[in-house]
Amino acid sequence: MAWTLGFVGCGVMAEVMIAGILDEGLLEPAQIIASNRRESRGAELQSRYGIRTTTANLDVVTGSDMTVLSVKPQTLAKVLAELRDSVPENSLVLSIVAGASMRVLRDGLSHSRVARCMPNLPCRIREGMTVWAAPDGLTPGDEARVEQVLGVMGGVIRVPDEAHVNMATAVNGTGPAIVAQFVKAMLEAAAYIGESRSVAKETVLATMVGTAKMLQDSDVHVASLIDEVTSPGGTTSRALQVLKQGRFSAVLTDSIDAAYERTQALGEQLEREIDAAPSTES
């Protein structure tokens, strides 16, 4: 059955989804509509992908079977107020807005059929991971559409409780930056001991990718992998001891926890904004 997908906000992640959907043949360009306040951005996407674009968010939600909310958290309350009571009863709204709870979405839109997700940066090359959640009551068709749309960007995991989406925001969403920071530190360490930059980049990245694939493609536990490469009194043993002295694991835990706390704070702020918004009821 033909259906229409809308995007309220068409930044980088929305474009990634649009490109993947079209490349996979999930939808035709005419079945996708996206809104952006800047006409130039809409014209860019229309030229590049052949989709329909508009500057009016209402045109998107009223003309779509499923709408992806992909705006910044700072503008979400305003957008929800604009769209309130306008989402068709049978339409599904999927949010990729960090921290925005399903209560915020339901109350802000006055619409019950909502879901939320958190993709991460590698979705840009379709090697990402997206975690999503939705309340009970979604139809099998709704669930299939969400899985299809998110699946064009990489792996997809549905979790039973939206609290896990907040956790994924801290781990899955923040993770690429932390991994990149680790790679940067490895490259700096390689330069410190005199390894050339070209060799360091190739070996560090190959080590990262290879180690990840070993853990991903087998049942080996991460602790077992560490034991395999660590000989008593050897080079790895010495390196790991220095990491422990520097509280490597503790600092990493603190950084993830800080991201998690910030995610929760964003959600609480959005809930306060929604609660403070004037009611449209007479």
Structural features, described:
The structure is a single chain. The chain is of the alpha/beta class and 282 residues long. The chain has 2 domains: 155 residues, NAD(P)-binding Rossmann-like Domain (Rossmann fold, 3-Layer(aba) Sandwich); 72 residues, ProC C-terminal domain-like fold (Orthogonal Bundle). It has 12 helices and 8 strands. The chain has an 8-stranded mixed β-sheet, sandwiched between helices. The longest helix is centred in the last third of the chain and has 29 residues. The protein is elongated. The model has no long low-confidence stretch (mean pLDDT 94).
Label this structure with key terms.
12 helices, 8 strands, alpha/beta, ProC C-terminal domain-like fold, 282 residues, elongated, Rossmann fold
